[in-house]
Amino acid sequence: MSQTTTVALVQMNAGVGAGDNLAEIEKRVAEARRAGAVYVLTPEMSVVFAKDRAGLQAAAEPWEGNRAMARLAGIARDNGVFLHIGSLAIALEDGRFANRSVLFDPQGGIVSRYDKIHLFDAEIDGANAYRESATYAGGDTAVTADIEPFVLGISICYDLRFPALYRTLAEAGAQVIAVPSAFTVPTGEAHWHVLLRARAIETGCFVLAAAQGGRHENGRATYGHSLIVSPWGKVIAEADGAEPGLVVAALDLDAVAEARQRVPALANARFFRAGAPQSGSTLKTQAGN
User: Fold this and answer.
1) Where is the CN hydrolase domain (predicted)?
2) Residue 88, domain CATH
């Protein structure tokens, strides 16, 4: 008998104020529960999608005594679901912020948390330098959580471009990997589907990608297209464009073992080093020349 579980992704058009965003999450989680979901994932920056650092300073709260977290715990408890907040900004003592993913259990307790590891620091031709590390402190630990009936691996947005993290999560037992995101429209059109499908194929995991979508109050435009990918790399559910809404699908967890048996890339991996031949060595042809 196959083992199935129903999951849901919330696609949002988050604004700069926590109140409206929390109300939207509460509404969508209730919809997801009525649809039979036991796990619900929201996008990156679900609680406040600030315009700039000043906006973050005005809205983000520390971990202890965080009012948004208290309300989210209540939403998880009231609906009896694993509620996975893709990320929210947490104020740190050094003046920076953590881009933190938080997983609540059906009783409202915190199962796990993960701070985004990879931060986008880039010099872009024709544009100003972008330094995410000036505002955020990156994490340093890959995180999995056993939430029964599956083991969940956690990542956030830009992490998607670093396959070693996903292999680490799979080797740690993950069967399902969350990728809450706020992809821009140009990068989404170019890379969103292919990267998510690649991470699923490489790891033999289901990949769940809840996304921000549309033109936001902070002036940004995000790609949307929240989607669920099977361990074989097939998109099995997807939001139609960038409008807010819900994506619901039943996962056949037996597909994880099946994909890994058909293509045992995790089991067949070998460790190697990069380098040139040792100094002084010579290469000879079969003819001895």
Assistant:
1) 5-253
2) 3.60.110.10
